[in-house]
Design goal:
The chain has 400 residues and is α/β, with parallel strands linked by helices. The protein contains 16 helices and 13 strands. Helices cover 50% and strands 14% of the residues.
């Protein structure tokens, strides 16, 4: 049985989507039907959210990086002993292989993932389980402590391979980790591209007005990860102007989030101002409890406008053209990997009217189907590459 370490039950349902896609792809390749994920935060189901998450993010956002890391060290240690290690140990019972990923896990925001990944790798090593990292992103901005922790963990001999989700991540891995671990990173497609394999959806109706999905993301969440986030007042007005422009162009606007509490709180804050732009058949508000629900919404759009990467990836999987809002290098890397960079825009620099014009054109033109199908086929083939590495005879060349 394979166990996948990831953040499946994160409130951001994009994390659950990629985790479920990876589980299905492994089972299709011959893994035991009981193959499933172990959440790195010890969550057990969708909706299992840390109380006060938004308050914690706001507090940490206000601190300089050095103070942030100091503030979280004791809670990280306490959680490691009380929650994470016991959860990982129970989850690995009966496992014979381990896959860690995907998602932006190889990162050092407040020593969070260096701590959790070290524990996961340690528990897998205790059981001598062959381990591979799959479709992970590598972030910048490492502390000396976080880098030392991850180098030591990834250098364990049972870690056979590291597959990364984009070229930028490979460059960072090879620069930061390759020499210390003896592993050269390989690039693979994101598992979320297999969303339509996991949750097939009926074709979108042709005899209706265009439906535009508008994915809201909180300025707090953007600023927590980006150095050039738009001002909150600018972001508010930009969303309002985009929604208004789409309605004026004859579109139905459906407003949603990927599920993160800070995004949901922001959507609630914006609800009345957005609702005032039109009637209920011109603008509506969507909610969902799990990745299946998120996919059902996205698959029914004719065009998507969103920051969150896995909303954009799911849209591509279902043949829905997306206008991606730039905030993180991982989104830029994805758009480049599918030849859609021209549909990546910066909210701080591009007027709302230009975004509306771009969305209308994208909805009209759609995606090149042969190219999309080839990308999804590559995503399936990449999981097979990783599966081969985890076979008993599988191995990964390590750099001398």
């Amino acid at each position: 049985m394979v166990r996948c370490f990831n953040v499946k039950f994160s409130p951001n349902l994009g994390d659950g989507l990629l985790s479920e896609c990876l589980e299905k792809a492994l089972i299709d390749l011959g893994a035991d039907p009981d193959t499933h994920s172990i959440d790195l935060a010890a969550r057990k189901a969708y909706g299992d959210v840390m109380m006060g998450r938004g308050t914690v993010m706001t507090f940490l956002d206000a601190l300089p990086p050095t103070l942030r890391r100091a503030a979280v060290r004791l809670p990280l240690k306490a959680q490691s002993i009380r929650s994470w290690r016991p959860h990982f140990a129970r989850g690995l019972e009966g496992a014979d292989r381990v896959v860690i990923g995907g998602g932006n896990l190889i990162s050092d925001i407040d020593l969070n993932f260096p701590t959790k990944l070290g524990l996961a790798i340690s528990e897998a090593e205790r059981r001598n389980l062959p381990t591979a990292f799959y479709a992970c992103g590598v972030a910048q901005g490492w502390s000396a402590t976080g880098l030392k922790m991850c180098r030591a963990a990834f250098a364990r001999p049972h870690v056979r391979a590291v597959f990364l989700r984009d070229t930028d991540s490979k460059v960072l891995w090879d620069d930061l980790m390759s020499e210390a671990t003896g592993i050269t990173g390989e690039v693979v497609r994101d598992p979320g591209l297999m969303a339509a394999d996991l949750y097939p959806q009926p074709p979108r109706p042709r005899d209706r007005r265009p439906v535009a999905g508008l994915g809201l993301m909180s300025h707090i969440a953007i600023r927590y990860h980006a150095t050039d986030a738009p001002r909150s007042e600018h972001l508010d007005q930009w969303y309002l102007d985009v929604a208004r422009g789409l309605i004026e162009q004859g579109c139905e606007v459906r407003v949603f989030t990927n599920g993160s509490p800070e995004d949901k709180a922001y959507a609630a804050q914006m609800h009345d101002r957005l609702a005032a732009l039109g009637s209920s058949d011109q603008i509506s508000f969507l909610t969902q409890r799990d990745p299946r629900g998120l996919c059902a919404h996205i698959a029914d759009f004719d065009v998507l406008i969103a920051y969150r990467m896995h909303a954009v990836i799911a849209a591509y999987a279902y043949g829905v053209p997306a206008i991606a809002l730039s905030w993180d290098r991982k989104l830029r890397s994805f758009m480049a990997s599918v030849n859609r960079e021209e549909f990546l825009l910066d909210v701080a620099k591009v007027p709302a009217g230009d975004c509306v014009d771009m969305a209308i054109a994208a909805a009209r033109d759609g995606l090149p189907e042969a190219e999309r199908a080839a990308v999804v086929a590559e995503a399936r083939a990449d999981v097979a590459r990783m599966w081969a590495v985890l076979e008993p005879e599988g191995r990964m060349e390590r750099r001398a």
